[in-house]
Structures are given as C-alpha cells and as structure tokens.
Amino acid sequence: MVEVIVEETVSCSPEAFLGLVMDPRRYAEIDRKLGRIDWVRRDGDVTEFRFRSALPGLGPGPKVVSRMTLTPGERVDVQLPERPENRLARRVSTFEAHFECTPVDGGIRVRRRIAFGFTAPLRWFAEPVLRRKLRADVEREVRGAKRLLER
User: What is the pLDDT of residue 121?
Assistant: First the structure.
C-alpha cells in the first residue's frame, strides 16, 4: 500500500475548504487525479460523481464513481462504493482518502490523506511508481486548494 499524508495551513474556514472538496468539478481544477467528470449528484452531506481516474506516473485509469461524505466543519471521507462502475477498480485495487480540517490561528490546518493498494501483479509495477510520484502530486493539489481559497 502507498499512503501519503500532507498537511497545510490555509487561511479560510473549515466550511470553505470542505465546500471546495465537495464540489468535484471545481476541485478538478487543482487535482490532476480527477479526469473528465461525467456526472455529479449531491444529496445533503453525500456527493457522488463519476470520472476518469488518473494516477501520477500511471496515466488514465478506468471510469469510477467516488462517494464523498461530509462531516460538517470537520472532514470529508472519500471512498469507491460498491457499484457496478467500480467493479474492476475494486477487484484490482484499494483506495482510502480523507480531508480533515482543524482550526488554528489564522485559519485551518488541513490534513489530506490518500492511500492506494494493488493486487499482484499490478502491485509490483504500480506501487513503486506511486511511491515516487504521489507525494508531489498531493502536495501540488493541496497548495492549489490553498491558492484558490486565499485569493
């Protein structure tokens, strides 16, 4: 499994940051792992969307449906739910992610965690590539969110 945790202080409220995350079309402006988005559905604190996945160093992946669940003012948990669109991705990989916001002087401390695991034989190819590329991609993503929200 490849896990990356990035922390950054952002001058905004938890609601502003988590609101950006819960808007996948807007968040895709800063996250290169989100390819073309086909649709977005929001029901209260849950957003689902279908998109073409793209992992750094590995290129485009399958279309998947992601589910984001908001805990207002605190965090967003991201998963690939059991859906027909996710059958292939769930068969060959695991995925876990979240965003946590903690109030600090001058804004919030954002903690972004993302983790991928792969079954053999993909593990031997994909995980070393992600170990080299994923951290820089997630750091760029979080800095992009910071720039967008601090304008």
Answer: 87
Beta strands in 11-142 (DSSP E): 34-43, 46-55, 59-71, 75-79, 93-104, 107-118
Nearest partner of 55 among 141, 122, 146, 129, judged by Cα: 129
- Given a cut of 90, whether residue 59 has pLDDT beyond it is no
Question: What does the pLDDT read at residue 94?
Answer: 95
Of 3, 5, 4, 6, nearest to 144 by C-alpha is 6
Tell me which residue has tokens 């972004």.
112
Tell me, what amino acid is at 70? L
Picking from 126, 149, 123, the residue whose alpha carbon sits closest to that of residue 26 is 149
pTM of the model: 0.94
Instruction: Give the CATH fold of the 2-150 domain.
Output: Alpha-D-Glucose-1,6-Bisphosphate; Chain A, domain 4 (3.30.530)
- Does an H or E element contain 147, and which? helix 122-150
Query: What's the token pair of residue 123?
Result: 């593990």
pLDDT tens by residue, 133-143:
999 999 999 99
